[in-house]
Write a structure and sequence with these properties.
It is a single chain. It contains 8 helices and 7 strands; from the N terminus they run H-E-E-H-E-H-E-E-H-E-H-H-E-H-H. The strands form 2 sheets. The chain has a 5-stranded mixed beta sheet with strand order 4-5-7-3-6. Strands 1-2 form a two-stranded antiparallel ribbon. The N and C termini lie far apart (153 Å).
């Protein structure tokens, strides 16, 4: 009887032992595969703030800029872009005024390209400047209005891109991945199985890469949301005043005729320079052309002689046939 009791007790202990092991393994697998809710972070420094909604830390000034920009659209993440084309007869002054206004608004020049030259005589088309400016979103509308008042507006365009869904989706994914990364690191410290270590390191590398990618994407969104892009094209008007206004029609015709003669003379000079500089090549080409000409001429001459000889034979044969 006692022996049966011992056997039953041993069996129960074995069942409890294996059940406990299985429970521990399941818990480790759940920690590995499914991250739990983010844990409360430590108190942040004066330079960082914890976002309880998504578990992110961010620079205080950057967060404030994002909040200011979001207030314009009821908390939505919107990228605003302006395009403006203006014309002016005070090109240099307008460009300087734009740069001063940009500095005052706290923006910066992303790119600048100026084509053409400053007009000096009647008919000169002048210069064209293409500027790409980045202005804080909350000041972009006022800056755009000031820019339009600096010249004659040729065209203007404003459009928005609502990236709210994509932005918050990326934030949520980033939070989940960060929590998962912390759990993977804790499991890596606890395990001593080589196969598990290799699998965990591979998963940690993958999660880290995704975190970096999402972080870069969010930074790009923040840059586009916080700073509005304003593309401005400035065209200089045709030169209508100055020394040209004092010239008579005869003077202008004389200058035009002189310019034409100068162009013709320059053309012939260029032709002469080309001829002299390429003379050796031209001589070689002439010799080759002459040789080819005489060869073709000799072939043609022999061909005509052969045809004439054949014709004479045919005529003689026909004559003999008729004679018979």
């Amino acid at each position: 009887m006692k022996r049966k009791i011992r056997i039953i007790a041993a069996g129960m202990l074995s069942v409890l032992f294996f059940a406990g092991c299985a429970s521990k393994n399941n818990e480790m697998m759940m920690d590995y595969a499914m991250p739990s809710e983010p844990q409360e972070m430590e108190t942040s420094t004066s330079f960082e703030r914890y976002d309880a909604s998504y578990g992110l830390t961010a620079d205080v000034e950057a967060v404030k800029r994002s909040e200011d920009a979001a207030e314009q659209y009821g908390g939505r993440k919107v990228i605003l872009t302006y395009e403006l084309s203006i014309e002016t007869d005070a090109f240099d002054s307008l460009i300087s005024a734009l740069k001063e206004r940009l500095n005052a608004a706290g923006g910066y020049l992303q790119s600048s390209y100026i084509d053409g030259k400053k007009p000096e005589v009647y008919g000169d088309r002048g210069r064209t400047a293409t500027l790409s400016l980045r202005v804080p979103a909350e000041k972009a509308e006022a800056f755009f209005a000031d820019a339009k008042a600096m010249g004659t507006v040729q065209s203007e365009h404003a459009y928005t891109d609502d990236v709210t869904a994509a932005y918050f989706d990326s934030e949520t994914r980033l939070s989940v991945l960060k929590t998962q990364l912390e759990r993977l690191k804790r499991i890596l410290v606890e395990t001593d199985n080589l196969a598990d270590v290799l699998a965990l390191e591979t998963e940690i590398a993958r999660v880290t890469t995704e975190i970096e990618s999402l972080t870069s994407e969010l930074r790009r969104y923040d840059a586009l949301i916080d700073y509005t892009t304003i593309s401005i094209t400035v065209s200089e008007t045709v030169y209508r005043e100055g020394p040209v206004a004092e010239k008579t029609v005869g003077e202008r015709i004389g200058e035009g005729f002189s310019d034409s003669l100068h162009g013709v003379g320059a053309f012939f000079v260029d032709v002469f320079v080309w001829f002299v500089s390429d003379l050796p090549v031209l001589v070689v080409l002439a010799l080759i052309g002459t040789a080819i000409f005489f060869c073709i001429r000799a072939v043609c001459k022999r061909s005509r002689a052969r045809k004439k000889a054949n014709k004479d034979k045919d005529d003689e044969k026909t004559y003999e046939e008729k004679k018979e």
